[in-house]
Every structure is written in structure tokens, then in C-alpha cells.
Amino acid sequence: MADVIMPKMGDAMETGTLVAWLKQNGEEVKAGDPIAEIETDKSNVEIEAEETGVFQRLAAEGDAIPVGGIIARIGDADAQPAAQFSPPSNGAQPTVAAHREEPRPPVEAVRPPAPAYSGPTVSISYSKAVQMALREELERDPDVYMLGEEIGQYQGTFKITEGFLDQFGPERIVDTPISEAAMVGMAVGSAMMGLRPVLEFMTFNFALVAWDQIINHAAKILYMSGGQFNIPLVMRGPAGVGGQLSAQHSQDLLHWYANVPGLKVVAPSTPADAKGLLKSAIRDNNPVIFTEHARLYGMRAEVPEDPDFLIPIGVADIKRTGADVTIISYSRGVHLSLLAAETLAKDGIDVEVVDLRSLQPIDWDTVLASVRKTHRAVVVQEQWLDYGIGAEFAARIGEEAFDELDAPVTRVAGAFVPMPYAKVLENLAVPNEEHIVAAVRKTVERTA
Q: Which of 3, 91, 152, 372 has the highest CB neighbour number within 10 Å of its CB?
């Protein structure tokens, strides 16, 4: 049984209007089928089924439903029908018992194994883990400050900096003009003077207009100054593909940053990794590109409470051990790979999943050791296939472990098209579990 909830399409959104049902009551639906159209404060979007089953409506067309409210249910044919949602008649804000403070984790967010940590933990979302890391580092080091568009009074697009302005004041939580180039330039200058800025992009797609500052200044000043000026700068924010954000706001461009000497590039897949790696990034004396996949923000897991919990940048993590084939990925791709591994295990294919966590520097020792054990490799990336991270791994594995391979390295990637807005087309353009399963089967069959 799966609940279909009113999604949160923006931090200012409190309710959404159910415009139209796209499926009939009692109809069999499949995962990915559009089931309803909703109106938000920004646009009209379609909601898709996350599971296969019999569809039950719990709200009527025209209802205003709070974020997190259950609007439908998908389950077995003999399941008892759920109570109908009814908006209040007195004009008050509607409420439902199943209202959630945070979005439900997406289906691809498989709960990861606990990190090698024995201290106290707390179950929080990915976004709250990022917030925890930022708050702890701001409290620990007075040289750390944050800057970005609407991170102070508005508290950030995803409310990562909620309460920060009141706690740390306007000198350390700095609202900037709408100019990414100016933001990065200001951050680089203050880093040269000894501060440790943490810059938030509303989305990493907006960082494109600041590339001169990022590539020619942040990444190169240490080298061009003969080692006189470190740039302890973290540039962080939501990234990744999906969510009907269309061609300009739904891109995975990490391979571009990983190609630049002087930049470190981090892409954690779990809440614990997000906390530990972000704290390490803030304490690092080099510029770090730190990306948080927006479709993982609602994922919950155990996170260490220790304010000194750190994960070193450049160390991969084996999220699942296996003997037959190695899947190499990062960020959301790790969860898709774990789901694929569970499916393949039913057919006796034992998959090892390597979470890179850092794309620059790369933990080649862990990657190559895994490939030498399984003798097969599949690389999963959200970015376009051509000139992507998968190509780099295929080349390096071929150079370093060619004699150990029983099959060519296979790549799973996004379609080489601008990201469509229509959900059905977006699904075709974005890698999914089925793509990974097919790639692994192909790799194994080539050596059968």
C-alpha cells in the first residue's frame, strides 16, 4: 500500500489544488503513470504513481490540500478503501492526520548501511544533515560565514539556512544581490583574506554564469600566486536531474568541474555522508564544489550527532559488497544501483556497489580493487553519455586493470538531449533502475 501525497514544489508552497484526476477509481495503475494534475503556487504539474496497484481517490477535483496530505492510495485490489479527504467548510487551513513535516523519500532512496561510527545518531533527512553540518561549523569557527541569494531573511530555497540569520547575524549570513559572478568574486576575495566562505547556489545550474570566477579565479589563484593565497571556499547547493525542471534547470554538470585542476568535487549520496563530507569541505583549504541532489533532500537515515564527525574527501565507500560485477556511481545513482542490485540478486547475480562520494580527487585504489575482484564494471551517471565520467572510468580501468576484465566496461547515462519538461519524456531521458539492470545483464552475458 502506497500513499500519494501533495508534493512540496517550493518552500513557499503550503497547499496545492487538485485540478483533475487522470485515472479512474479502482483502475490498475503502473509505477510512472500520470495519475493527477495539481496546481501549485508556481505552475501546474502532473503527479505520477510510485508503485503498481489499484488506484483509490481520497480527494475531489478542486480540493485545496496541504503539502504532505494524502490525496490517493495505491494498493491491492482487496484493500479496504481509505477515508476520504475533506477540506474544512469554515475556511480554515485544511489538515490531515498523515501530514508530514518533510517530503517522503523518493522510491529510489534505498536506506544505506550505517557508517562505521559507534557514537549517538539521530534519524534526520538529507537536507537536515546538511543544515546540521553548516550550523556546527558556523558555531565551531568564527571565520566561517555563508553568503547567497535569499539565504538570510527568506532562509534559503530549501530552508537549509532556517534560523541561521537570527542565530549568527547578518555579518555571517549574508544575503547577496542576484549575481552569481559577484557572489563567487566576493567569496574568493574574502577567502584570500583569511575567511572561510560557504556559498549557496539556488541551483548549480545558476553557477554557469559565474564560471569565469570559478574556473579562472577560485581554482587557479593558489597556483598563480605561487602558493601565497589559499582559497578555503565551499560552493554548495542542489544539483542533479529530474523533477520536471526542464532543460536549463535539470542538468548534471559535475564532470565539467571535475575536469578543472584546483577544484575538489563532492557528491554525497546519504545523509551521513552529506554531513561528514560537508564538514570536511568547510575545513579544507581548497575550493570545493559540493553538490546535494535535490531528489535526495527528503531521504531519512541515521546521522552521527558528533560535531567532529568527518568523512575525508577522496575516499570512496562500498555501499554493497558483491562478487560478480562492480557498479560505480555517485549521488542519486548509488540508490538506483542498489535497487538494481536487489533485482539482479534474485537471478543470482552478485553486485558490488561503489559510491565514489568524491569525483575529484577519485579513490582509484578502491575502484580498481573492486574491479579486480569482480572482473566486470558498469558506470552509472546522470549526465550525458558523450565525454562523461563513465568515459573516464572506462579508460582508466582499461589502462590499469585490462588483464582483469572479463567484459568491456559498460556505461549507463542520460540521453544526449536537453532535458524535456514532460514527465513521460523526462523519464526516457534519465537513467533508471531498469537501465542499470539491463546494462549489468549485458555485461555478464558477454562473458557467460
A: 152
Cell digits for 208? Answer: 554557469
**What CA–CA distances, in Å, run from 20 to 34, 98, 295, 424?**
11, 22, 25, 18
In a domain, 95, yes or no: no
Neighbours of 77 (CB within 10 A): 8
**What gap in Å lies between CA 231 and CA 193, rounded to an integer?**
9
Q: Are 377 and 325 in contact (CB under 8 A)?
A: yes
Q: What are the residue numbers of the active site?
A: 180, 249
- Read off the DSSP letter of residue 370: H
The confidence band for 68, taking pLDDT boundaries of 50, 70 and 90, is confident
Whether pLDDT at 148 is above 50: yes
For residue range 342-383, what is the model confidence (pLDDT) as tens digits?
Answer: 999 999 999 999 999 999 999 999 999 999 999 999 999 999
**What span, in angstroms and rounded, lies between the C-alpha atoms of 18 and 37?**
6
Percent of the chain with pLDDT over 70: 89
| 344's grid cell | 539482479
Of the residues 42, 75, 108, which one is the last residue of a structural domain? 75
According to DSSP, residue 296 is labeled G
Asked whether residue 87 is domain-assigned, the answer is no
In the three-class reduction of DSSP (H, G, I as helix; E, B as strand; rest coil), residue 20 is classed as: strand
Q: Which grid cell is 59? A: 480527494
| Residue 82 counted as domain residue | no
Q: How far apart are CA 191 and CA 176, in angstroms?
A: 16
